[in-house]
């Protein structure tokens, strides 16, 4: 059992992270504590930034690295740790950025709410701990668009390297019918994953219904094949049941290194090229959040942007790197005209299918017990606090989901992909792009290529286009229809009235009308639940959308507009890895086109969303990026 040797160290790290002040040698809070210059400056101490910092400082001991983080060290409880009820906010949760998008006209002017971690560890410290990976087809499609070696075969070793997976005890595996293939893991990384020793009593209800709909169970979905019913591990420690995140695995668990400094409570304002972008690496302009003091940090090697999907493009735009038309409107001198900076925004979204039951629903325990049964909750808390945690509080947000391809959802899938190809070739694709890049030849060319590659992906019966996660079907039941590969594209732009304020997000969900074709097909597919023997046995009574609404395209479209959750907190793609003539921001080496000494390493680099929550992908991207950078500097 690989984890036993590291259990005491991780428990110590947990205690360390819960302290109000962390007495580590590399934590800095003021410019006076810093060196005059650094070989590497990493902008953002989140999932990718800390991963890269850990690997660089370990492999290049003669190089000094500074990580600059807006937030601070903070205890990061799991999504569902005591004393919460089921999926209620934790009183000690780490701070988050809370974004509200601009009104979305195609969705009835509703807004998207999305969060990101404002803490050492970033979003890995606040996410749902659902630790899945995309299909190998997603990553091969990424490589097709990027013209790169970022395909599945090249990144799969880094998925393995990033994590230590612990197999559940046989008794637990048999109780819940967990399945896995250890060959998909095999690494010894600093991030832990496992299956919890608990599931709600009715978890198997939907599992059985999905099978009755013809969805096959998959033994393992982390090895590249991902179509069917999947068990998904959580990013948690196998003994303590606690959240495993970058703030622990790539920071608190790392012995202090003289070449590794972490500066907290500071904002990177911009990167500066006094002699032009070919003269890099740039200076880094930094603002203290304590006294508002500004200072420049000298860099001798390179600057690595890891500030996340929203803040990486924000910093670049403040630096004069972005769409020239927008920079002119913002009154910022253009250093590099890269229209892809802050463009290409995507996120998973979708509406639910909902129901109630007319027959008695007699299972124990169910999530509602946490709120209505004080003795049960007390027992659950005691179980979680045992030396080996067990019971409901080890569950996080759940571990099961279905992933279904478009050919398995609708017989009309080729009609949908034909429409996608037509708009990519007849000149209409550009009309669905954001207005400020709609006439940009590079952005149009890149979008057309994305559409053609996505059409191929959506036609593949092994490539998921729908995800529905679940952990219980306690009434009222709800099955979400995640649109895994949206065609609509949004933007992240500086606030024109205050460049240091949070950026403005324009999600533009549904701006490409073919997304609605897929939404319609997915909702109708999920309604097949109500025809299964299992759901009929329980007397499932549909609440939404209902048979009458589902039978009419316009009525169902209205339901989708009113019920779609516009963000499942998986934003991506705002500094995409694509060739510059196709609107790309970075190349396969992660270097910003035309900017010497500047790279990007976070979830903004993907050209489009994979069929996955993004935490495991972020670690894999960062691990591969670290190897690329280390290789260059060795």
UniProtKB/TrEMBL annotation:
Pfam families according to UniProt: GMC_oxred_C (PF05199), GMC_oxred_N (PF00732)
Biological processes annotated in GO: secondary metabolite biosynthetic process
UniProt domain Glucose-methanol-choline oxidoreductase C-terminal: residue ranges: 486-622
Signal peptide range in chain numbering: 1-21
Binding site for FAD: 47-48, 119, 268
Residue ranges constituting the Glucose-methanol-choline oxidoreductase N-terminal domain according to the UniProt record: 38-348
An annotated Gene Ontology molecular function: oxidoreductase activity, acting on CH-OH group of donors
Tree of life domain: Eukaryota
Enzyme active site: 570, 613
Record's keyword terms, sorted: FAD, Flavoprotein, Signal
Needed cofactors: FAD
Similarity remark: Belongs to the GMC oxidoreductase family.
Protein name: Alcohol oxidase
């Amino acid at each position: 059992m690989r984890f036993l040797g590291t259990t005491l160290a991780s428990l110590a790290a947990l205690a360390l992270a819960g302290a109000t002040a962390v007495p580590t040698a590399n934590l800095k809070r003021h410019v006076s504590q810093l060196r005059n210059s650094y070989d590497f400056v990493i902008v953002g101490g989140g999932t990718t930034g800390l991963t890269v910092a850990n690997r660089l400082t370990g492999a290049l001991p003669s190089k000094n690295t500074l990580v600059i983080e807006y937030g601070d060290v903070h205890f990061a409880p799991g999504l569902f740790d005591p004393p919460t009820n089921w999926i209620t906010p934790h009183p000690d949760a780490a701070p988050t950025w809370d974004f509200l998008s601009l009104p979305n006209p195609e969705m009835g002017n509703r807004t998207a709410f999305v969060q990101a971690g404002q803490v050492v560890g970033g979003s890995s410290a606040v996410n749902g701990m659902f630790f899945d990976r995309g299909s190998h087809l997603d990553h091969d499609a990424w490589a097709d668009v990027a013209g790169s070696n970022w395909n599945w075969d090249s990144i799969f070793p880094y998925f393995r390297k990033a994590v230590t997976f612990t197999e559940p005890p046989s008794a637990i595996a048999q109780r819940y019918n967990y399945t896995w293939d250890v060959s998909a893991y095999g690494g010894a990384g600093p991030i832990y994953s496992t299956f919890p020793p608990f599931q709600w009593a009715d978890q198997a209800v939907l599992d059985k219904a999905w099978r009755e709909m013809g969805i096959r169970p998959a033994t393992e979905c982390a090895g590249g094949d991902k179509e069917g019913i999947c068990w998904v591990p959580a990013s948690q420690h196998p003994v303590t049941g606690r959240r495993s995140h970058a703030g622990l695995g790539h920071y608190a668990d790392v012995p202090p290194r003289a070449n590794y400094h972490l500066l907290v409570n500071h904002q990177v304002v911009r990167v500066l090229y006094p002699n032009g972008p070919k003269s890099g690496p740039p200076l880094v302009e930094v603002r203290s959040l304590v006294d508002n003091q500004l200072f420049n940090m000298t860099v001798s090697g390179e600057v690595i942007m890891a500030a996340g999907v929203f803040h990486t493009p924000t910093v670049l735009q403040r630096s004069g790197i972005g769409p020239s038309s927008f920079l002119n409107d913002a009154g910022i001198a253009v250093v590099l005209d890269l229209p892809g900076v802050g463009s290409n925004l995507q996120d998973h979204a979708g509406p639910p299918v909902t129901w109630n039951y007319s027959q008695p629903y007699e299972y124990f325990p169910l999530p509602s017990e946490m709120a209505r049964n004080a003795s049960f909750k007390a027992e659950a808390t005691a179980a979680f606090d045992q030396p080996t945690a067990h019971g409901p509080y080890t569950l996080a947000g759940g571990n099961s989901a279905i992933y279904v391809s478009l050919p398995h959802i609708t017989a009309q899938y080729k009609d949908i992909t034909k429409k996608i190809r037509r708009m990519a070739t007849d000149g209409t694709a550009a009309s669905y792009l954001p207005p400020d890049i709609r006439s940009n030849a590079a952005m149009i060319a890149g979008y057309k290529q994305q559409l053609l590659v996505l059409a191929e992906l959506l036609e593949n019966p092994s490539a998921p286009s729908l995800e529905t996660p679940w952990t219980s079907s306690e009434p009222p039941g709800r099955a979400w229809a995640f649109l895994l590969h949206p065609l609509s594209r949004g933007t992240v732009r500086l606030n024109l009235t205050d460049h240091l304020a949070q950026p403005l997000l324009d999600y533009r969900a549904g701006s490409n009308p073919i997304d609605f074709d897929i939404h319609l097909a997915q909702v109708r597919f999920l309604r097949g639940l109500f025809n299964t023997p299992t759901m009929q046995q329980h007397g499932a009574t549909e609440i939404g959308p209902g048979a009458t609404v589902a039978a009419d395209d316009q009525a169902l479209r209205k339901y989708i507009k009113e019920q779609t959750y516009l963000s499942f907190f998986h934003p991506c793609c705002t500094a995409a890895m694509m060739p510059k003539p196709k609107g790309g921001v970075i190349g396969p080496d992660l270097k910003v086109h035309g900017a010497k000494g500047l790279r990007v390493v976070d979830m903004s680099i993907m050209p489009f969303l994979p069929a996955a929550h993004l935490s495991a992908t972020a670690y894999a991207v960062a691990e591969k990026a670290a190897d690329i950078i280390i290789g260059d500097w060795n």
